[in-house]
Amino acid sequence: MSVHDFKWQVKHPLTDEIKKIPLTKYEDIPDIDDTEKYNWVQVGTEKYGRSMYCTNTGIRRSQTMGEFYEGGIVD
Question: Per residue in 4-63, pLDDT tens?
């Protein structure tokens, strides 16, 4: 499953602890689709303040275009 397939993502409340983790660019994670290593969940609720967090590794990263637009049509 690709991280670009947003419909499989789970939303998680953005906690103060997660906000403190530095944000990594998704492009800098070469094995981002490795589901045995990563369990990505969306954190945050505002459109421009959301990010992705891995519950396995503790990495916080930016969203892909698909995750940002939540599978909607980009105009």
Answer: 555 445 566 667 788 889 999 999 999 999 999 999 988 887 788 889 999 999 999 999
Domain ranges of the chain: 6-69
pTM: 0.76
Per-residue HEC secondary structure of the chain comes to: CCCCCHHHCEEECCCHHHHCCCEECHHHCCCCCCCCCCCEEEECCCCCCCEEEECCCCCEECCCHHHHHCCCCCC
